[in-house]
């Protein structure tokens, strides 16, 4: 890899260009250049790579399957919304060299604070060293400061430069640049906190660290053992570790670590009761999962399914329509979106649905007559055990107690069903077929009037086979809460548009909560959202709607809330609803917080102290430095909806200090999400987005905490962070 390899970079069936790829000496960076011009076209860091897929695992490589064998093909998948890189090596051996090499580099790249710092230093040095001589003069350092979001007084910058220039050569190289970087990144606010608990101002003894953990971090169990663990894990000096003390450097490393994060590390893994009925969980859900662009002319791609599943999505949507030679295709019907074969979607689900050990996957099969043709194709991709109701045989009883745990490793099909569930279990009945659904019941009736009797009979036999698979998620029209309580079953589900859901929330909030305590409800975006924009999921979660389908391809506040809610509980895609939303006789109404049973309101106090190495705004001018402010938003029941923000700090995105306190009262904290947003202030136009982090209130860890910021598409942007102090009081 470090010698370089000539490979084909592929963008389409007709676009195949030879490029020379090489791993740099730092074993962190890969660049590639044109074979014809020799010009370096692009580079990426190993830390940008999420995974490497072997063989024909993209639409482009699948289209070239007859021309190039799978042994020579692989796909580099990046974090976020950056496009994949499809490559064809000259031989199977070369392909394996890159595949295995990249996987090993990804594996050995844990982003510890020390590694993030070293990577950051190296990257900036390479950017600023214009003449590539391995040294930086003062002019290059000034340029570097602008690039790093620092607008520093020239005299102060020169003093730091001269202090680091130990060789007095007028340039910085190697360790001298590291010294300059350390002086630049001195954290006075952390040092002051350290000295408040350190008697000699140089170290924290074991007992002093225990005092800090108990008094400030509110750790109340096993604090001495925890203190020992933190020293062993984060103290860089072997001598200090042997003496069981923590230096200022070790203290900073702890505060920047997962243990020092605002997100409670105990909630990262599975921490909730996972044996409840399915309707007792919020379920991460996507709308028109196959689309990665807009709803009218956008591209359909299996990448939509892969990305959604990797993001923790557990409810996917598949729109099936007739294709050539009777093969069903997936696309947005009656639009100009591109099409993908249904068999490719099924194959992708087979590969990725349970790849990370996640459990149930409710799969919404939508469309009109076309779904009935999908039965035999589904068998080919998933096999009998998953197609028959996702492994749930029709004779499995569907009672309110059917739990998420009982449905583990199953794929449920949400769809229309011929007749009642009892007919499937006990044999055909005399009842007329019930195939109605808010989404497409009328379309079904029109279709039946158009097709001939022979073809209709043929399709109904196929329809019966697919119908038998629909066990726990039979689609039914919603005709009111009273009708549902009298005639519906827990094995049924209704789909509501966002507008209809909002009207029900306004008119009958408590009835909606009660309904969702025993039956599943799916909410989908308005058909007017042709740009794939999203509605706020929070108002739907406030009444307990489980399947709140969003356009995962569209970044923004709505997807930040979705990612924030489902980032807990092992990212399994399921979050247990609060107890007062699981009671069928609950009095809770989100418009009246006093109807909630339980303790009174809580006060959330957030001191926003500082920011570290904030990114520049995309497409900003050379030399531009941001004026950052922090806004804290509360998303929850209407009474809790609020936001406050700090003042902006002029010309400092590197180490801004705010030292401002924001306070919120939460009446229903169990439903609250807290979103931290950093923006670049602009007095003449809309502020520019810099970074954000969102989490459920239940996952907040009090004390002095770092908030590690995410980009607009939800990927991490180390080492950008906020430093805050959190207090929660009743």
At a glance:
This protein has 730 residues and is α+β, with helices and mostly antiparallel strands. It has five domains: 5-111, Pleckstrin-homology domain (PH domain)/Phosphotyrosine-binding domain (PTB) (PH-domain like), CATH 2.30.29.30; 114-185, EF-hand (Recoverin, domain 1, Orthogonal Bundle); 188-260, Recoverin, domain 1, CATH 1.10.238.10; 278-391 and 401-421 and 461-581, Alpha-Beta Barrel (TIM Barrel), CATH 3.20.20.190; 602-729, C2 domain (Immunoglobulin-like, Sandwich), CATH 2.60.40.150. Helices cover 30% and strands 22% of the residues.
Q: Write down the Rg.
A: 28 Å
Say what the CATH topology of the largest domain is.
TIM Barrel
Helical fraction equals 25-40%
Tell me the number of structural domains.
5
Major sheet details: 7 strands, antiparallel
Strand order of the largest sheet: 4-3-2-1-7-6-5
Our measurement of the CA-to-CA distance between the termini, rounded to an integer number of angstroms, reads 58 Å
**Architecture of the largest domain, according to CATH?**
Alpha-Beta Barrel
Instruction: Give start-end ranges of low-pLDDT stretches.
Output: 366-381, 387-401, 428-452
Structural class computed from helices and strand pairing: alpha+beta
Please, what is the CATH homologous superfamily of the largest domain? Phosphatidylinositol (PI) phosphodiesterase
Average pLDDT = 84
**Assigned CATH class of the largest domain:** Alpha Beta
**Total E-strand runs:** 28
Number of helices: 22
Q: What general outline do the C-alpha atoms trace?
A: globular
Strand content is: 15-25%
Pfam family, one: PI-PLC-X
Domain C2: 582-711
Enzyme class: hydrolase
Region (Disordered): 421-455
């Amino acid at each position: 890899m470090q010698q370089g390899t000539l490979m084909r970079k592929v963008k389409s069936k007709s676009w195949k260009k030879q490029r020379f790829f090489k791993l740099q000496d730092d074993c962190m960076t890969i660049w590639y250049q044109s074979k014809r011009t020799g010009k370096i076209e692009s580079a990426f860091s190993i830390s940008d790579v999420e995974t490497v897929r072997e063989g024909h695992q993209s639409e482009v490589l699948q289209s070239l399957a007859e021309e190039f064998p799978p042994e020579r093909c692989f796909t580099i998948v990046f974090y976020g919304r950056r496009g994949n890189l499809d490559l064809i090596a000259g031989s199977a051996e070369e392909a394996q060299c890159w595949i295995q090499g990249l996987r090993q580099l990804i594996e050995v790249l844990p982003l510890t604070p020390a590694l993030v710092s070293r990577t950051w230093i190296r990257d900036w040095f390479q950017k600023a060293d214009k003449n590539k001589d391995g040294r930086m003069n003062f002019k290059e350092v000034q340029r570097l400061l602008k690039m790093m979001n620092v607008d520093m007084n020239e005299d102060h910058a020169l003093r730091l430069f001269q202090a680091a220039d130990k060789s007095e050569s007028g340039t910085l190289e190697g360790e001298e640049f590291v010294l300059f970087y350390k002086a630049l990144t001195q954290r006075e606010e952390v040092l002051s906190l350290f000295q408040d608990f350190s008697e000699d101002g140089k170290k924290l003894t074991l007992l002093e660290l225990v005092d800090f953990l108990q008094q400030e971090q509110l750790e109340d169990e096993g604090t001495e053992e925890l203190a020992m663990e933190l020293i062993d894990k984060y103290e860089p000096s072997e001598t200090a570790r042997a003496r069981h003390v923590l230096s200022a450097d070790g203290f900073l490393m702890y505060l920047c670590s997962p243990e020092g994060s605002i997100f409670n590390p105990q909630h990262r893994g599975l921490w909730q009761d996972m044996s409840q009925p399915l309707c007792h969980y919020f379920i991460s859900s996507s709308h028109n999962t196959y689309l990665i662009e807009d709803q009218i002319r956008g591209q359909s791609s299996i990448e939509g399914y892969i990305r959604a599943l990797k993001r923790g999505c557990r409810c996917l949507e598949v729109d099936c329509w007739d294709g050539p030679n009777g093969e069903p295709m997936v696309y947005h019907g009656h639009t100009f979106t591109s099409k993908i074969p249904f068999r490719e979607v099924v194959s992708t689900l087979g590969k990725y649905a349970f790849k990370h050990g996640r459990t149930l996957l409710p799969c919404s099969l939508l469309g009109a007559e076309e779904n009935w043709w999908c039965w035999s194709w589904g068998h080919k991709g998933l096999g009998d055990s998953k197609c028959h109701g996702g492994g749930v045989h029709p004779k499995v009883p569907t009672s309110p107690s059917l739990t998420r745990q009982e449905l583990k490793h199953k794929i449920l099909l949400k769809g229309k069903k011929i007749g009642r569930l009892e007919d499937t279990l006990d044999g055909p009945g005399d009842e007329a077929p019930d195939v109605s659904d808010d989404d497409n019941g009328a379309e079904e009736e029109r279709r039946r009037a158009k097709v001939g009797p022979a073809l209709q009979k043929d399709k109904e036999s196929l329809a019966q086979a697919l119908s038998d698979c629909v066990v726990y998620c039979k689609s039914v029209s919603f005709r009111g809460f009273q009708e549902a309580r009298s005639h519906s079953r827990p094995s049924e589900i209704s789909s509501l548009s966002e507008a209809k859901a909002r009207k029900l929330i306004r008119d009958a909030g408590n009835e909606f909560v009660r309904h969702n305590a025993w039956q599943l409800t799916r909410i989908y975006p308005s058909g007017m959202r042709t740009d794939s924009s999203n509605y706020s999921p929070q108002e739907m979660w406030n009444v307990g709607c489980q399947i709140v389908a969003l356009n995962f391809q569209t970044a923004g506040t709505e997807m930040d809330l979705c990612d924030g809610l489902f980032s807990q509980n092992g990212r399994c895609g399921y979050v247990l609803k609060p107890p007062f939303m699981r009671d069928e006789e609950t009095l809770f109404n989100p418009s009246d917080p006093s109807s909630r049973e339980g303790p009174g309101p809580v006060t959330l106090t957030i001191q926003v102290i500082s920011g570290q190495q904030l990114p520049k705004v995309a497409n900003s001018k050379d030399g531009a430095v941001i004026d950052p402010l922090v806004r804290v938003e509360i998303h929850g029941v209407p009474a809790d909806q609020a936001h406050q923000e700090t003042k902006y700090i002029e010309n400092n995105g590197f180490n801004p200090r705010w030292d401002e306190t924001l306070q919120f009262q939460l009446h229903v904290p169990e439903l609250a999400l807290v979103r931290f947003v950093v923006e670049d202030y602009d007095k003449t136009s809309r502020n520019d987005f810099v970074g954000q982090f969102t989490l459920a209130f239940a996952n907040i860890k009090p004390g002095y905490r770092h908030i590690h910021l995410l980009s607009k598409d939800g990927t991490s942007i180390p080492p950008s962070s906020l430093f805050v102090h959190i207090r929660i009081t009743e």
